[in-house]
Write a structure and sequence with these properties.
224 residues; alpha+beta; Jelly Rolls; Arc Repressor Mutant, subunit A; 2 domains; four-stranded antiparallel sheet; 8 helices; 11 strands; elongated
Length: 224
């Protein structure tokens, strides 16, 4: 993977890096490939870098005893580890690839230097962090205030709108991952997905989901 690839994707997120600053990043990144299922970062581990996803999909999750809670599904153009920049020296969550992915690991100290030197860049990073926070608030409302069918509807809508940007997508998550994403047992998640399929709300073929009735999904989400 070419190192310049990171900047073509960064420009969709941040536009204020000078050529000199881009060179600084180029000289302080490591390109890595992770196979499906490999850990990218570990909750509680020392954080020496910020990770930028060039391609593929990654799950971020909180580990608690023998259960996980998936916070979000990240994709190309997303950062992992921004919360470690000024708050903590350790990762607050774990992240692992749900399919093969390429990432750029950027030295954390260099990243902080650029934020301190470039106020516009700092504002853009803050905006990304705020978007992450907003997403987490929505997720917690779904998990704590909605019934099972509402949670499944929210999850499918999130994957369609925020992750795959399509009403038809290949389901990279395992059934267990999807259950952890919705905060329910694997059996319950599978049962409700089949109900949605039988009711012609979605079409589920293998690992491909096609949304047939966006209106019904939105109504289930609203009713909770």
């Amino acid at each position: 993977m070419e190192r310049t690839n990171i900047f073509s994707k960064l420009e969709s997120k941040t536009v204020s890096l000078s050529n000199e600053e881009k060179i600084i990043i180029e000289n302080n990144i490591i390109e890595l490939k992770y196979k499906k299922g490999e850990n990218i970062c570990k909750q509680g581990a020392f954080a020496s870098c910020v990770v930028f996803i060039n391609s593929g999909f990654v799950k971020r999750y909180i580990e608690h005893k023998d259960k996980n809670l998936i916070l979000s599904i990240s994709h190309a153009g997303d950062f992992i580890g921004l919360s470690t920049l000024f708050y903590s020296n350790t990762f607050l969550y774990s992240a692992s690839s749900i399919e093969d992915c390429y990432v750029s690991s950027i030295n954390k100290d260099i990243f902080i230097q650029l934020i301190n030197k470039n106020p516009k860049f700092a504002g853009e990073i803050l905006s990304i962090l705020n978007n992450h926070t907003s997403l987490y608030f929505e997720r917690f409302i779904s998990l704590t205030q909605k019934q099972l069918h509402g949670r499944i509807a929210d999850a499918i809508l999130h994957l369609s709108r925020d992750v795959y940007n399509s009403t038809t997508f290949n389901f990279s998550l395992s059934r267990r991952d999807f259950a952890e994403f919705t905060g329910m047992s694997t059996e319950s998640a599978i049962r409700i997905l089949k109900e949605f399929h039988n009711d012609r709300i979605i079409n589920l073929e293998g690992k491909t989901i096609e949304i047939i009735s966006m209106e019904l999904l939105q109504k289930l989400s609203e009713l909770g």
